[in-house]
Amino acid sequence: MLKKTMMSFALAAAMGAGLAGAATLEDVERSFYPYRDGAPTAPGLEVGITIDSANVARFREVLDPAIFDQVSKGWVEIVVGETTSFDLHPNYVEATRKGLGQVVLGDELGQIDGFVAGRPFPEEPSADDPRAGEKLAWNYKYGYNWGDNAAIYPFYWRYRDLESGKIERTLKFNFHFLNYKHRVNQEPIPEFPDNPSDLFRAIYVQVLEPFDVKNTQLLIHRASDDLKRDNTWLYLGFQRRVRRLSSGQITDSFLGADIMIEDFEGYNGRISDMNWSYQGTKNILLPFYNHNDMQLATDLEEKDGYQFVDFGGKGGCFPNITWQLRKVYVLEADPIDDNHPISRRVHYVDAQTFTLPRTLIYDRKGDLWKSWIIGQAHPDHHLPKNKGTGVAIDDAFSMLDVQASHCTTGQFKGQVDPSLNPVKLFTVQNMRATGR
Prior knowledge:
CATH architecture: Clam
Radius of gyration: 21 Å
Number of helices: 6
CATH superfamily: Lipoprotein localisation LolA/LolB/LppX
Largest sheet: 16 strands, mixed
Distance between the termini: 41 Å
Shape: globular
Mean pLDDT: 94
Strand content: 25-35%
């Protein structure tokens, strides 16, 4: 049985659509360059300070409730870094300018009209706009996360016991991302001419290690029409066949991890699968940093000398990185499907990049279940090929199940490199051929 989205949704639709045309060029500048006139501040918070269990009470206002609780318990310490601008690619900003006044929400949740490329709704969200949360969700969906295409090549997941710190299992993947439409930087622009299924985006995943799950593959096709369900296929090496996943299976544990497919990138689902509500704007600490300035891991070093983010804290469940005080939109997402395993997600949306570096996930009883960190590295202080791309690089993650005392951590080698993402990679035929 499905929840009703809003009793007065028709009125809300009209109000929300009407407000969309209010964006100005000044709104675009504020949206993409929020620190042009200076970084946010908080009493007593200085670059280089360490927030720990002894002083955390002083900084409650700049921490989300889950990380505040974890620091209070001594599970992790937060080192404050300098707030820096993560400028997105100029082409994405220019596409936003060109789209001003043309983008409006449709009558139904999950409908948008007039969008070509860029950020659909660059204006500040308003508490008086009943569809402000939905607009923020669209800004995330059509954000510049990974740009037009990129790869995490390779990508290590580790399953860890929070109490003992034991690493129970290590998986090695390659992840690939490709936007078929709304492209701004890499040819073809703005979309692929041969796209008979009218896809917006595709994700392809291949497991490289260990042997028992080697060559497991996942392929997700997301339609341009948000009201259409994703097509998702799984190839299991030991079965040697491709099977289609039902919509319910994207909320199952993926390969035994603390992560579901719907959790990828912070949220990997449709706009129309959730009710979205804007909960306010604030300045809080987020995991943004310069990768090359961190104390990096030495146990997974690549042949080219690349080193991954290291982990520490309780159970080894926390990335060893610095956190920046940044402007954040608090966005709540409540599943429309009553059978969904969670009751809500609270996303702390970075206002400049529209990435989802912090998400709190609550179980069906309303209790905190999982705490999701996705570290964001500046592209100019990462691999040379990423410099100048304007992509906030997903660089490390931790999904901490606070109820099961368990976590899954991720160490990325993110590469903005079109040569790693040919169209043929994102096909069922490729899954079959690779699986032989």
